[in-house]
Design goal:
The protein is built from four helices and no strands. It is mostly helical. It has two domains: 1-31; 32-96, no CATH class. InterPro entries: GASA. Keywords: Signal.
Amino acid sequence: MAGRSYSSFLIAISLLVLVTFSNVAEAYGSAKLRPSDCKPKCTYRCSATSHKKPCMFFCQKCCAKCLCVPPGVYGNKEVCPCYNSWKTKEGGPKCP
């Protein structure tokens, strides 16, 4: 009987760890977004720029392709590898 309660305890701890890590991943933007999540995420991402229209255009384009928007209003692109690696013809970053 002691083995059964120990197994139940391990399963409960494992589930708790999985839920915790999934919440952390979602908080940092690495979880896959739904296309409907792009506009609100990009609105926040572009909130600090004076070039809102082009920022929103490219952010939404990048989000639609990558299903990820980095957290914050600037930087943190390493959280979204697809978003980070998409470049313009000139080699600059395509995604804001």
